[in-house]
Design brief:
The complex is a heterodimer of chains A (about 110) and B (about 110).
Chain A: E1 2-5, E2 10-14, E3 19-21, E4 24-27, E5 32-38, E6 44-50, E7 56-58, E8 64-68, E9 73-78, E10 87-94, E11 101-102, E12 106-111
Parallel strand pairs in A: 2-12
Antiparallel strand pairs in A: 1-4, 3-9, 5-6, 5-10, 7-8, 8-9, 10-11, 10-12
Chain B: E1 5-7, E2 10-13, E3 19-24, E4 31-37, E5 44-50, E6 53-57, E7 65-68, E8 75-79, E9 88-96, E10 99-105, E11 109-113
The chains are: A mainly beta (about 110), B mainly beta (about 110).
C-alpha cells in the first residue's frame, strides 16, 4: 500500500523567494513519485517524476525535487518564485504503475 | 500529441438523474484511469482500463457507477440516480505501454448535483 503526506496545506512566499513544498511518502514497494500542478478549474499537469533513475529530478518551469529514501521524502523546490507559480500542487505515489495515490495538496500563494 | 480530452467540462443535474461523461485518451495510450476529486482534496482513484479490460475498481465505485471502454479507445463513466454527494470533479488520465507509471490528465468534468 502507498500513502503520501503533504505538510502545509497553504504556503505563501514572496516573488523571487525560494519555494519549498514538502512531501513524505510511504510505500511497501520501490515507489514512483510525481508532482502535479493544478490551476483553478483545470486538470493536473505533470511537473516532474522520479522513476528510480537520478535522485535529483528536474521538471518544467524551473522546479526540481530530490528523492531521499532514508527520509522517505520527495520535496519540491524552485529557487525563485514567480507570480505564475500560484496554484495547487499535489504529490503522488504509485508502486506498480497502476493507480496513483495523491496527497491532499498544497496551495501556493506568491505575493509581490 | 493531442492531450486527454473530456466532455462535458461542466454538468449540472438534479438529484436522481443519470449522467454520462466521456474521456478520450492520448492516441495509442493503452491505459485509461478515472479519478474523483472533491473540494480541497487530492484526486482519488476510481477505476482503470488496459485496452478494453477493466482491471481494477475502487470501493468508491458504488453500484450506481459504471465505466466502459468498449473498443479500447474512449471511455464513458455513467452515474445513475445521482446524489448530492456525487458532486465533484471527475478526472480522466491515460498512460502508455513502457511508461505505465506516468499518467497524463485531462481537464476534468465538474459535476454539480442539485
Amino acid at each position: 500500500a502507498q500513502s503520501v503526506t503533504q505538510l502545509g496545506s497553504h504556503v505563501s512566499v514572496s516573488e523571487g523567494a525560494l519555494v519549498l513544498l514538502r512531501c513524505n511518502y510511504s510505500s511497501s514497494v520501490p515507489p514512483y513519485l510525481f508532482w502535479y500542478v493544478q490551476y483553478p478549474n483545470q486538470g493536473l499537469q505533470l511537473l516532474l517524476k522520479y522513476t528510480s533513475a537520478a535522485t535529483l529530478v528536474k521538471g518544467i518551469n524551473g522546479f526540481e525535487a530530490e528523492f531521499k529514501k532514508s527520509e522517505t521524502s520527495f520535496h519540491l523546490t524552485k529557487p525563485s518564485a514567480h507570480m505564475s507559480d500560484a496554484a495547487e500542487y499535489f504529490c503522488a505515489v504509485t508502486g506498480g504503475g497502476n493507480k496513483l495515490t495523491f496527497g491532499t495538496g498544497t496551495q501556493l500563494k506568491v505575493e509581490l | 500529441d493531442t492531450g486527454v480530452s473530456q466532455d462535458p467540462r461542466h454538468k449540472i443535474t438534479k438529484r436522481g438523474q443519470n449522467v454520462t461523461f466521456r474521456c478520450d485518451p492520448i492516441s495509442e495510450h493503452n491505459r485509461l484511469y478515472w479519478y474523483r476529486q472533491t473540494l480541497g482534496q487530492g484526486p482519488e482513484f476510481l477505476t482503470y482500463f488496459q485496452n478494453e479490460a477493466q482491471l481494477e475498481k475502487s470501493r468508491l465505485l458504488s453500484d450506481r457507477f459504471s465505466a466502459e471502454r468498449p473498443k479500447g479507445s474512449f471511455s464513458t463513466l455513467e452515474i445513475q440516480r445521482t446524489e448530492q454527494g456525487d458532486s465533484a470533479m471527475y478526472l480522466c488520465a491515460s498512460s502508455k505501454a513502457g511508461q505505465q507509471e506516468t499518467q497524463y490528465f485531462g481537464p476534468g468534468t465538474r459535476l454539480l448535483v442539485l
